[in-house]
Amino acid sequence: MENDMAKPQVFSIPALKRLPAYLRELKKLQAAGRLHATSPVLARALRIDAISVRKDLEMIGAAGSPGVGYQVEPLIDALESFLGWKNASEAFLVGTGHLGTALLGYRGFADYGLKIIAAFDKGPVPKDTLVHDVPVFDFAEFPHLTRRLQIRMAILCVPDDAAQEVAEKMVEAGILAIWNFTGHTLLLPEDIIRQKVNLAGDFAVLSVKLARRLREIDGCGEDKQ
Ligand SMILES: NC(=O)c1ccc[n+]([C@@H]2O[C@H](COP(=O)([O-])OP(=O)(O)OC[C@H]3O[C@@H](n4cnc5c(N)ncnc54)[C@H](O)[C@@H]3O)[C@@H](O)[C@H]2O)c1
Q1: Residue 56: inside a domain
Q2: Which residue spans does the record list as DNA-binding (predicted)?
Q3: Same domain, yes or no, for 71 and 106?
């Protein structure tokens, strides 16, 4: 007989991506003194339908009461626990150029429970360098600081041609999850968790949609003439 416990749980990626938006909305409601949130209210805020809201929240084990909805505070708690954002995830960032510097200055990561505690760049890095109050070290320091501070997550912001080599060194140092902002697709052992930010890909989708929309508008214009 199959052992259900051994089956990995499968989550919907779009649903996972919506969870931060629920959290943001619930925190707004909490700040406004609201104790409950119904699925239609959350659905309106997220521009989705109420059935999807119920399904998404079921995924994290939350159930609302008929007519009353979800209790705001326990739901925030459940979302933060599910996302692992209750205790800040400490991360290192590598590559303090344009993008890395911008990320280091982004205060919003604190809301995701992400704390970038140090950054690295290729040496030599002058002693006591700070970028947005985050200390910056020579990348040669990365392995021993990763081990000493038991950091498991790293943010990769080096140029594309350095990405593979830097990522391999991250893995050797004990990093288990890499948030890859470079355009390079990393070749790493299967068990290394990686998430690629694809600004170029997202922009391609936007551009193609805009081009289609403009063709539709032009088409309408022609019909009217
Ligand atoms: N994900 C996206 O959609 C997106 C969008 C914009 C930029 N990017 C990517 O982000 C990356 C960084 O872009 P940028 O504009 O900040 O570049 P940048 O040149 O301004 O910064 C790169 C930094 O990495 C450092 N670096 C280079 N080699 C290194 C190494 N071996 N070890 C440690 N540090 C090293 C450099 O000294 C520099 O400070 C690039 O890969 C770029 O393609 C991605």
Answers
A1: yes
A2: 21-60
A3: no
Residues 104 and 190 in one domain: yes
Do 103 and 143 belong to one domain?
Answer: yes
Q: Return the residue matching tokens 């990320």.
A: 103
Task: Dump strand ranges (E) for 52-196.
Answer: 70-71, 89-94, 114-121, 130-131, 134-138, 153-156, 177-180, 193-196
Enter the pTM of the model.
Answer: 0.82
Ligand 1 centroid from CA 95, angstroms: 6
Q: Determine the pLDDT at residue 7.
A: 57
201 assigned to a ligand binding site = no
Ligand 1 touching residue 129 (CB < 6 A): no
User: 201 or 102: which carries more pLDDT confidence?
Assistant: 102
Tell me: do 133 and 190 sit in the same domain.
yes
Q: Is 218 part of any domain?
A: no
Give domain status of residue 96, yes or no.
yes
pLDDT at position 123 = 82
Q: Determine, yes or no, domain membership for 207.
A: no
* 180 close to ligand 1 (CB < 6 Angstrom): no
CA 173–ligand 1 middle distance (angstroms): 20
99 annotated to a ligand binding site: yes
Asked if residue 173 lies in contact with residue 149, where contact means CB atoms within 8 angstroms, the answer is no
Atom 38 of ligand 1: nearest residue by CA position? 97
ipTM rounded to 2 decimals: 0.96
Instruction: For residue 10, give Cα distances in angstroms to 50, 143, 189.
Output: 22, 33, 21
Domain holding 134, by residue range, is 89-200
Write down the pLDDT at residue 175: 96
